[in-house]
Write a structure and sequence with these properties.
The chain is of the alpha/beta class. It has one domain: TIM Barrel, CATH 3.20.20. The chain has 10 helices and 8 strands. Strands 1-2-3-4-5-6-7-8 form an 8-stranded parallel β-barrel, surrounded by 5 helices. α1 (about 15-25) packs parallel to α2 and α1 runs parallel beside α10. It is globular, with a radius of gyration of 17 Å. It starts with a strand and ends with a helix. It binds 1,3-dihydroxyacetonephosphate (13P). 1,3-dihydroxyacetonephosphate binds near residues 164 and 207.
Amino acid sequence: MKKLIAGNWKMNGSLEVNAALVQALLADTSAWTCDVAVCVPPVYLAQVQALVQGSRLDLGAQDVSAHQEGAFTGEVSASMLKDFGVRYCIVGHSERRQYHQESDATVALKAQRALAAGITPIVCVGETLAQRDAGLTEEVVKRQLAAMVHTNGHCISEIVLAYEPVWAIGTGKTASPQQAQQVHHVLRRQLQAASQHADRVRILYGGSMNASNAGALLAQPDIDGGLIGGAALKALDFLSIVATAR
Ligand code: 13P
């Protein structure tokens, strides 16, 4: 399966910084063997769309409204994202679940909106440190994925899944390749129970992935790519992760 390396810029960047970063990423794409995307803040979609036009770098968003259209001040709909050439959209990132109280059901609806607009949702699941310490990791990620399966039915094979342990995000603490593989395997089995096409779902790992730990993580049988935060803001770091993903 072709791997996917997606950068999540989070709330970082400026017109100037974005232009320099994308230019550096596109300097030489000839050796890329995986799919590569950057998920940018919504106000920069038009800028980055123009910068990546005709290149091998795909455009992604970081969130989408659960509603189709109408009186939802500040929200951005899936069809608006589609207008700007968005191919992927992160949904249910732990920062949205935590700071914006997004429930499993809301996240599942967001994925449904994205799919209906022809955008691939990158669905994030993951446990907190307290949940891991209490032995609840599998229960938590299974519950998060179950909501997705319940709402999206057989379309579940069209998503990208991302396992992002909350305790590993932005902390410099990465799940070991074995820890990550164990959870990815659980998620794979759950997908297989829901769809006969489950084996084409890419399951990304996210959480302090960087140039030095990416190789061992990406070598695991059920790790099909990465969702990269901090290291996606530095062209050299991001490119060396891309080079590792074969
Ligand atoms: P870091 O790579 O900065 O830990 O962030 C991971 C993440 O949240 C990607 O969505």
